[in-house]
Amino acid sequence: MTVAAELNIVTGAFSFTGKYITRRLLAGDKQVKTLTGHPLRQNPFEGKVEAVGFHFDRPATLTANLKGASTLYNTYWIRFEHAQATFERTLEQTRILLRCAAKAGVGHIVHFSSIHADARSALPYFRAKGLAEQLVEESGIPCTILRPTLMFGLESSFCNNLAWMLRKFPMFAVAGSGRYSIQPVFVDDVAELAVRAGRNRQLLNTDVAGPEVFTFDALVKLLARKIGCRARLMHVSPRRALKMVALINDMVNDVVLTADEIRGMMENLIVSDAPPLGHTLFSDWLDKNAEALGIKYYSELKYHFC
Asked: Where are the beta strands (DSSP E) in the chain?
């Protein structure tokens, strides 16, 4: 008699973080279903992952789709507001998801938050992330909350598009002094920790950071050197940086960087005081992947909102 594989549900299994989680679950012989805003999108897992829509407007359907799940890996979020996709609406959708997960009897949630998420933050992104954590903690479902720093990987819009701009333009504008800190963490290290927490039902609430800390200037210079570009750094005010970013936004029809992201970096909100849980060195990873970075621009608007 064949025993059915344990069901795990991943929100956004075809997207950046969810893809790495799903790969690890499948490698561990787990059954995976994904809740996605794009259920008809090409399935990169050769049909091994069932894809269904979120159906936030049909809670009974969402509840039915969550039934039987041992663990829900929740990566659902937006990086920036666009049209009807606001932080307020995303929080309401998160509330619906959690309410349906509780009704469906989901045993554990691994929720992806953000470093320095804080319901009292003056920055809308970090504030909304903090409010989402409160919803998870109040859901009544045993939970793990992971707060990654800046995740990197070949599919990372930040890492890839930074390389694209370095390849495309002779000058690269840096907001402020460039001496603020960045602590990148490899997305697969985060996925490894997430799957282990889900498997062991660990009740964690922790930062997830990589082993290296760079100033922003140093990170950009390292990336430029590794991909073989000679773009010069130009330090400008945050206001001017945003104006320059707006020009690139129009060029690529996307949101390259937000005011929240610039301010968050300049206030050192992309580093953690906790011991690093990631083990992959960004500098080593660049040695192996530099040639592939920045060849094409990755549009978040096109991928997530179209």
From this structure: 7-11, 31-36, 49-53, 71-74, 108-112, 143-148, 151-152, 171-175, 181-182, 185-186, 205-208, 214-215, 232-236
Cα–Cα distance, 275 to 165 (Å, whole number) = 32
Pairing of strands 108-112, 143-148: parallel
Q: Angle at CA 109, nearest 5°, toward 103 and 115?
A: 135
Distance CA 282, CA 248 (A): 26
Q: What is the token pair recorded at 174?
A: 């840096």
Record the tokens describing residue 140, joined without a space. Answer: 């009544």
Domains of the chain: 7-148 (3.40.50.720), 154-182+212-272+280-297 (3.90.25)
DSSP labels, 13-75:
TTSHHHHHHHHHHHHTT-EEEEEES-TTS--TTTT-EEEEE--TT-HHHHHHHHTT-SEEEE-
Phi/psi for 202 (5° steps) reads -75, 135
271 token code pair = 């580093």
Q: Is the pTM of this model over 0.90?
A: yes
pLDDT digits (tens, 9 = 90+) for 144-160: 999 999 999 999 999 99
